[in-house]
Amino acid sequence: MIRKLFLAFSFVCILISCSTAPITGRSQLILLTEYQELNLGSSAFSQVMKESKVSTNKVYLDAVKRVGFRIAPVTNKNYQWEFTVLQSDQINAWCLPGGKIAFYEGILDIMENEAQIAAVMGHEIAHATARHGGERMSLGILAQVGAIAVQIAMKDKDPAVQYAVLQAYIPTVLVGAILPFSRAHEHEADEIGLIYMAKAGYNPEEAVRFWEIMYEKNKGQKRPPAWLSTHPPTQKRIDEIKKLLPEAMEIYNLSEKAELKVLH
Ligand SMILES: [Zn+2]
Predict the structure, then answer these.
(1) What confidence category does residue 170 fall into, taking pLDDT thresholds of 50, 70 and 90?
(2) To the nearest whole number, what is the mean pLDDT of the chain?
(3) Distance 147 CA to ligand 1 centre (A)
(4) Catalytic residue status for 124
(5) Dist. CA 264 → ligand 1 center (Å)
(6) Which residue from 20, 21, 143, 194 has the highest number of Cβ atoms inside 10 Å of its Cβ?
(7) 143 CA distance to ligand 1 middle (Å)
């Protein structure tokens, strides 16, 4: 058993690579290589595309591609970028590792202009370029190694006791480490996304406007849509984005401005 634990830790140590998030410069512990992450991203994307219908709304498709191809170069990432809109009234958008981005029609329905697309695009792309997925997966691996350690420590105990302790241990890891992590990731993606949109020539004030629209939309909803539950449009979030605005506005003022196209 001890040998197994040793092997598990060696496995983790071999894979450890130190990484740095773009813009914020935060150092990260990521146990996957970027290459592994890109492969996961591409295969997940082809899977989703097999199961989904691409939107026939040409205005939406053109807008998302136009914004995407303006933001992609400012990230300095050599990804195989793909931008699409999927048929669904869900308020949702995502970016998989390697720059595979989808917006759902539902989130575009409530946006006013292309700068608001840029706000969400910048945020979602930031999750990918800052490798938040890889970081979370790494934490999952460490949590499992931790769980093995708990099992070993208790190997002489009654199996029912072992099971109970393990059940107690796992939620502790989730609440104690992974959830705060996701809040930190959200904040970091807001920060990086704001800089990305500004560099690409979109007014960062539209990010504040977008989150205000979301805030109104979310009010009084008992069960918020999936994207909103992981992206809560709280007053705190809006205030934090406002704090980042002066720096982003400086970048925007020096950028080559994108044309502000309305969506509806
Ligand atoms: Zn996010």
Answers:
(1) low
(2) 85
(3) 28
(4) yes
(5) 25
(6) 194
(7) 22
